[in-house]
Amino acid sequence: MKILILNSGSSSIKFQLIDMPSENVIGKGLIEKIGLKDASITVKNAADKKEVIKLNIPNHAKGIEFLLSIITDEKLNIISSLDEISAVGHRIVHGGQAFSKSVMINDDVMHGIEACVELAPLHNPANIKGVEAMELAIPGIPQVAVFDTAFHHSIPEHRAIYALPIEFYKKYGLRKYGFHGTSHQYVSLRAKEIYGDDRTENVITCHLGNGGSLAAIKNGESIETSMGFSPTDGLMMGTRCGSIDPGAIPFIADHEDLDMYGVSTLINKKSGLLGISGISSDYRDVSLAAEKGNEDAELALKMFHYDVKKYIGTYIAALGGIDTIIFTGGIGENSALARREILKGLDGLGIKINHDKNDATMGVEADISHDDAKVRVAVIPTNEEVMIARDTFNIVNQ
Which residues of this protein are annotated with the site description Transition state stabilizer (predicted)? Predict the structure, then answer.
């Protein structure tokens, strides 16, 4: 069964075509700059043959239309007909309180996703456009919604509700939702596949990229995560400030004469690694600047590494112990520096890495623990698309 996976953004659509249940990727790519003059579609087949096509792509519907025509082009040898696509799986960022698992999309589900737009105003509208574009392109094809927030529904209420008047939770659903759930779930399941039940009861997953979050996972269920009501909470990130004293917000707004939009822009787009380093939101750029002696860049890295370390310590307490720590995401998978600095000084907790293994690991699965360490430290590249394909396959075949 061939399943098309779509991750629709405001001006882009990432896609993969996955053959299930083998999980073989037979085509993938990216539609970029939808609505702009220099829009393009990049497509790769299973043999890594790539084609980049510049097109006028005014909206998501046209982008999907072009995508389907390209993946059926005989030159790329991906599929010969749209009839080969059995279902579509969509990454939906926010499912609110209504969706605790992946679901087949129907009118009621679409209304539910639309109701969550105020919780994810930058993401859910784009996700909706992807669903609507597919329905126009292949009417009646089964479509499945896989929610970033669903995995964290198992977090107990006493850890999820903020210490604000309880009516805000009851009226508005104001609570911790968490994000990156599909990634946290995938790598925790993959750890169990690789290592069996050995030391996978209490797991901390570190999804570190331009956006980042940690999750504490007990027996396969999320019991705590660092992002909250919004993706701004938790770790210091590329451009997001992460957790700060709420009292700082009115202080800054007053002194800098910022309205709510200005505050939102500040904490989401001008803070984090970018705000501290003054150089870039990209960890690699900040690392290079630090190597050259830039003190602000050095400070940014120290803050980031400490932030992750702090959450690891907190989650060891929440779990009542730790068996395995997993690094994933662009930084987690590829930066030996980040892994080394984050875990430095944790030997007393049984966390010790093999530095040769760590330095040699980039973007591949690896156990980088020291031989005498009590806690396993693993690098597992995330694969959210496969996780979405699995859910879609299982739901369509129920």
Answer: 180, 240
